[in-house]
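G., the chain you wanted modeled:
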Amino acid sequence: MKTQILIAALFFSGLAAAQQSKDTLKVKNIEAVNIKKQVFKKQSDRFIYDVASSPIAKGTNTFNLLKQTPMLSSVDGKSLKIMGKSDVVIYINNKKSNMDAEALIEMLKGTPSEDIQKIEVITTPGSEFQVESNEGVINIVMKKKKSDGYNGTLKMNNEQAYYNNPSAGASFNFRKSKWSVNSNFNTGSWTDRERYTLSNGDSTFRNESFGYNDDPNKNVGGSVNIDYEINKNHSLGFTYNMRYNKSFNSILDVTNWQNGALVNRTVNNENAQTRNHSFNLNYEIKTDSIGSKLTSNVSYLWFNRDKMSMNESFPLNSDKKNIYSALQQSVPQIINNYAANIDYLKKTAKGSTWLMGVSYNHTNTDNDTRQDDIENGVIINNENQTNHFIYKERILGAYITYERKLSEKLSGKIGTRYEMTRSSGEILGKTSFDRNYNNLLPYLNLNYAISSDHNLTYSFSSRIRRPRFWELNPSRTYFTPNNYTQNNPFVLASKFYNQELSYMYKSAFFANLSFNYVKDASNQIPLQGTVTGPEKDENGNTIIATKRFLRYIRTNYGDNKQFGLTLGMNKSWFKEIWTTNYSVNLGYNIYKGSVTEDPTSVPVAGQTEVVEPYIINFKNFNISGNINNTVRLSSNKDWFLGVNYYYGSKVKIESGTLGVRQSFDVSLKKIMGNWTFVAEVYDVFNQNYNSIQGIQPNGSYNNVVNFEYPRILNIGVTYNFGNQKLKKAREMKSANDAIKSRT
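Predicted structure as tokens:
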């Protein structure tokens, strides 16, 4: 009977089961058995997908497993998304991942699903999580079986899109006595191809551009994680991550028309290299026998991206206003970040939990942009677009969270996070600014277990979104001489206030109602206008000419409100032969704001610039959905068929109306012992591409069609070797995690 009481107590979070009657105990034991078999359930502030109990968890990789997790989706096979969320942050064993986005995806694709115990989807993260804006958290919990030995995974993929893109990866895990080592390595060669159709103008003028971009890439990345258990209460860990990407001879080739007449052809040739190295030292102390612990981290991050490009425009008609023009750019960026944090987790005998911590981040960025115009074979420095921008940022953060069970059915979690930001920027010899602000970010979560079949949760959180470092670098990326993106060092942080109400029925059906309010929202805004001033014609004569421009400026524009309702189901049928994961997201957005000037514009003597005001004022209803099906084709559980479908309706965003997107995917998987063979076809009908149509109240318009050849055939082979029950080293949170996502 004591064992029964203990089991019931564990499943019901330490409730006083010992004081229950014998009949009540029997009922609770039955409930406990049912809970253990639940594949998907709601617990406190998160949804939990019990991978070990799922019929589709064998013989695949962690990335594919995440795509099948309720509330998660991946349309392009390169990123993950939580329904109704702006972005996701990956945690492993409650510690934020220490890799950049592309390296992380490669790591997930190389991690066998058999290593995963459960996946937690946290739609409204608490104060202890280092997230921004409306981000959600995916926490991957690894299996905890401990034994000495080694294991590993070898993986090869061949992806056929417009071009053929091969890749390979390997992971190796070793454990001996007090030492644990985890490592992974991946490499790949791929070329992205995109096709563009652009048009902008008004009732008196129209500009049209057609072209393509071929972007070849070579990538090498990897990480090593070393953990040493000093004794049962003290552990020391070290993590190193690296990534190198080379993209040489990236060609953008665009033909331009004005008012129906062929004008010129623009060719942009770009060479870029990216290097990313990060180091983290971790020390952990267990302070009691019930789970309390103190952890500390010190980290260093070095990021370097060198980009050089040549942009040439060739006249294609006899108009003397259209002459050959060229410019070249050098845009290097160096980021150095030093960080440290201390976190303390305190558990009490009564079942309450305290979380508290402090962190410090110091970041220096150096952006030395040089732009030269080429006139008659002579290189002339463009002083207006040559900028040496130095940006320094210091963030001191502290948080405290308290969680406890208020009654047998009601539990709560309350906390707050304080962040003090001190930043300064200087464009050497031109301008400078200081930006200092403090933020107090409260958090609340209430969970009510109505019965074993019904669960209700309310959450509130507040966050800020700081600009990414590349967004602050005041450089341009040219599409044509008069059509380009422009970064903005003066963009302000945005404030987010998020609320959610979640309901789950029988651990299979769920509903999630959300409301998000954003103050000082920012995005990339298309500004149109004219520049009038002197210039040379093809004969070298000075004339006064007026040219239209289209600049995509990242800037603050106003506020927005977003309402969302996600309905979903995760269930297996016919003795787990057919597993379904369906979800639909209904959204209603209200955007309000305007941009009446170019915040990055620098006055030039003799020139007059006119910017057309850009108005954002709309209300919009939209719908999106995922239908994922996995069918077991054999009684031996070694053949599986996947059939998935994604649909996104038209939706208004800041730059216009994004058109309908769809993707129909199929896959076939065969398991042969330690070997897994997969054939996948993404977007069978080539329907997942971006088409944006924007029109302003004054009649000006801007339309963009970006086709990335989304149909992809992927053939993958994975081999697992060694002791598959090996416990991995501790996954350690890096002190500079919050900075990595901004590089």
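Helices lie at 2-11, 22-37, 62-67, 101-110, 469-472, 737-740.

Shout if anything looks off.
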